[in-house]
Amino acid sequence: MKTVWLVSLIVSSLLLLGVMFRNKLPLQWVRRFSLHLIAAALVLYVLNFSGLVTGMEVPLNPATIGTVVLLGLPGIMLVLGLQMTLF
Q: Least packed by Cβ within 10 Å: which of 1, 9, 14, 68?
């Protein structure tokens, strides 16, 4: 089963790169997305280890980082709110 997921990941990554190069996406778009991704991961990391929110820890995984990248500060609040209601 791991092989199927690995092959799927590799094929989808290659197809994504093909679409990016075929449509000639500007390098600034990729750079800006990368900076947002890094900033979201750093904010979640600082939030977890600074002690600003006591008793709660936001996991650093693709779902939470993606939520914060897309939504920004409301994404952090969404993740914290979901943790408070579900756990």
A: 1
**Residue 65 and residue 79: Cα distance in Å, rounded?**
10
What are the domain boundaries of the chain?
26-86
CA dihedral (78, 81, 85, 87) positive or negative = positive
Tokens of 60: 């650093």
Compute the residue count for the chain: 87
Burial (CB count <10 Å: 0-12, 13-18, 19+), residue 43: middle
φ, ψ for residue 46 (rounded to 5)?
Answer: -65, -40
Higher pLDDT, 78 or 23: 78
pLDDT digits (tens, 9 = 90+) for 29-62: 778 888 888 888 888 888 888 877 777 788 888 8
